[in-house]
Amino acid sequence: MKIIFSTLFLVVFSVVSNAQNRLETAKKIATEKNELILLNFSGSDWCIPCIKLHKNIIETDDFKKLENDNIIVYINADFPRNKKNQLSLELKKENASLADQYNQKGMFPYTILLNSEGKILKTWEGLISGDALAFSKEIRDIKNNQKP
C-alpha cells in the first residue's frame, strides 16, 4: 500500500511541478534580476484582439526593450485552435494550469503583471489601449514604484 501511495504522490507531484515550469523559472529569474513577470493569455490563431496585441505591442522593439533592460520576464500562455498550431502536451498542460491560477474567467487577451513571487500587480483585460511605447512606460513606472 505504501508503494502505491508513494508512486501516486510522485506522479501527481511531477505533473504539478512540470505544469508550473515556466512560471517557476520566471519567478526565479525575476527574483535574481529584480524583474517583474508579464503573463499574457492569448489565442494566437483565432482571437483577433490577441493577434493585434502581439503585432502592435509584444512584437515591437519598445516591448522587447523591456526584456533586454531586465524589466520583465515574459510568458505567453497561448491557446491555439488550429491543428497546425497545436502546442506540445506538456505546454498545453502548463498553460491550462496557468489559466486555472490566473485566468479563471477565460478572457482573451488577458495580460497580467506579477511580482517575483507571483502576486498580481496589474491586469489588462482585452486589447491594451495605446501603443507599445505607452504600455512599456506604464510597466516601467510600476517597476520603478516597487519597494526594493
Descriptive overview:
The chain starts with a helix and ends with a helix. The longest helix is centred in the N-terminal third of the chain and has 18 residues, at 2-19. The radius of gyration is 17 Å and the shape is globular. The protein has a single domain (27-144), classed as 3-Layer(aba) Sandwich (Glutaredoxin), CATH 3.40.30.10. It contains six helices and four strands; from the N terminus they run H-H-E-H-H-E-H-E-E-H. A hairpin with a 5-residue loop joins strand 3 (110-114) and strand 4. Helix 4 (61-68) runs parallel beside helix 6. It has 148 residues and is α+β, with helices and mostly antiparallel strands. Strands 2-1-3-4 form a four-stranded mixed beta sheet, sandwiched between helices. The protein has helices at residues 2-19, 21-33, 48-58, 61-68, 89-102, 132-144; strands spanning 36-42, 72-78, 110-114, 120-125. The model is unreliable at 4-19 (pLDDT under 50). Helix content is 52%, strand content 17%.
